[in-house]
Structures are given as C-alpha cells and as structure tokens.
Amino acid sequence: MLRLPSFRYFEPTTLREAIARKVDAGPSGMYVAGGTDLYPNMKRRQHEPKTVISLMHVGELRADRRTGAQADRVIELGAGITLTELSACAPVRRSADVLAQAASLISTPLLRNMGTLGGNLCLDTRCNYYDQTYEWRKAIDFCMKKDGAICWVAPSSPRCWAVNSSDLAPVAVALGAELEFAGPAGSRLVRAAQLYRNDGIRYLEKDRDEILVRVNVPLTRGADAVYEKLRRRGAFDFPVLGVAAWIRWDGEVVAEARIVLGAVASYPQQIEGAGAALAGSRLSDDAITQAALAAFDPAKPMDNTDFDLSWRKQMTRVYVTRALQALRDRRRRMAPLVTAHPT
C-alpha cells in the first residue's frame, strides 16, 4: 500500500492567508485544491512537500462574478469550482458548453466531485516513466523530471518530454481564456495560450507562490467550440489525444478558427496552420481535410503514454476531422429556416 509522507497541513480561508502560508513554507510548501493529482504524486514520492496548504476553504476561489456589465461578454469562473459543478453550470452550458463538455469527460464522477477547474488547468505533466512508484523509478535510475538526469523517452534530449494531459487546458487556449493569478506581488492576468511551456518540468509560466484565482472566458458573438478526447477506456483515463476546435462564424463562412491539441506535447499545442486553412471557407470537406493535414504534420507524440505513438499521430487527423465535422453539423442545425414568401 502506498502511503502519504508526513507533512504539515493548513486550511486558510482567505487568499492573503494562503499566500502567506506558502511564502513561510518556501520551496518545501505546496498548494492543494481537490488533491486528485497531488496526493497520488505524494504517495509515489514524485512530490515531497513538508507543508501542504489547502485551497478548498478559500472563499475568493469560489466567488461568482457572472453578473454586471461584463455578464454578456465574459464568464468569470472561480478556480475552486469543482469539475462536477462546472459540467452542470447553467451559464456555462448556455454560453460556453465546450467547457462543461470537457469537464464531464475528466476521470470519474467521484474524482470530478473533488477535482477543480484550477487544478485541471495546472495539472502536473505525465509520463510512463514518471508516474510510477518510487521503487520502480529507482530501479531504472530515476528520470530527469524527478531525482534523475535522463529523459527515458528521449535519452539524448536535454529536456523532459512529459506531456500535458489536461482536458481543460486546450479548451481554455482555444477559447482565448484569461487566467487571473494572485501572489505576494499582487494580481496579474495571463492569456491561457501564454501560460503553458513546452517543457515537461517547467511547464507553467507561474511563480511557485502564485494561486490561480479566476478563469475569464470571453463570449464571442458567432463563435462555437467542441472538444474530442481519445483514451483507451470511455471513463477514468487521461487523454492520449485531445482536440479543442473553436470557430467564429461570419454567416456561413469561417471568419476565424483555432485548433489546439492536448496530450501530444508538454503544452497545449495550437496549430496555427490548421486555423489558417479554415479561415474564409464554408467548412467544406476539402477545408476540413486541409486543416486535419495541417494538424497532423506538426503533431509529434512521444512514446510516453498509452497506445502506439505512430497510431496516435494518425488519430490526430481523425479527431481533428471529427471535431470540425461536429461544428459544421451543429452550425447547419442552428441555421435559421428560410421560408419562401409568396409574390
């Protein structure tokens, strides 16, 4: 049985108190929200904090600000909202359903009751060589991400290739979300696309003492988005490929598009060429094919998650096609009926 190591535990009730606790703890302290990622990692000794600061009782992380002048332009979500709450949130379902859809695909109902929006957005990167017990990792001489000097996925590489397996991160990037962080130096806003780094160890542009407080999702007129997820089982498993597709329509023409891939790199990978292939089109079969090919070429999954990597690369084209076809079908269903008027 894997057991948690000894640590001090605090339950602050305000942001100021939580940040102060973390500053006092220094590098040996860590924040925890739902704990669905941190506690298993602690059991495997991937993380060994001496102090754990819980965020579940910090009121500012659950404050609802979806009212007022910004209500019709932005959905403001507290980072402490659980995945279950997010998947059932009526304003989200009505105006940014892809967030609720992606949240409903994460893990299992029990873990969605515990896991949070902020926790999934800041999820630790994953790898077959990293997400093992201490004894297993010791037997192979550890890896670069924890206690070792070699990335076993690519032994000659100077960097870690652990992948970002968050479901909500590619969706946030596709939606153009802004994230609000609070730390000892105050608050700041960061675009989701600027938060993530293609580095399995230093995967967030975030100070260790900062807390993700809020996620601001812009409500763009004429926009729609979907999320497609590949995994071995229909529940519980992390994605081995995620595709977030966002389109802003101008009538029946694609005015702007974003295609973001998850679980193929250490960051949510936006494929600029795929979006460019769709702009100005009516989302025809040819345009979808070109966008899928544009996403296929730069997708370079590594041999550090489930399934054969060459097959996973082929699935990039399949799942981008599936996502875009879903958007096209939904657009056609929502198009107003044209009634012929007698002359």
Query: Which stretches are low in confidence, meaning pLDDT under 50 for 5 or more residues running?
Result: 337-343
Order of helices and strands: EHEHEEHHHHHHHEEHEEEEEHHH
What can be said about the biggest beta sheet?
A: 4 strands, antiparallel
Give the overall pLDDT as a whole number.
94
If classified by CATH, what would the architecture of the domain at 62-123 and 164-218 be?
2-Layer Sandwich
CATH topology of the domain at 62-123 and 164-218: Uridine Diphospho-n-acetylenolpyruvylglucosamine Reductase, domain 3
What is the strand content? Answer: 15-25%
Global outline: globular
Q: What is the alpha-carbon Rg in Å? A: 21 Å
- Oligomer designation: single chain
Q: Strand order across the biggest sheet?
A: 4-7-5-6
- Annotation, overall tally of beta strands: 11
Distance between the termini: 80 Å
CATH class of the domain at 62-123 and 164-218: Alpha Beta
- The helical percent reads 25-40%
Continuous helix count? 13
**Structural class of the helix and strand makeup?**
alpha+beta
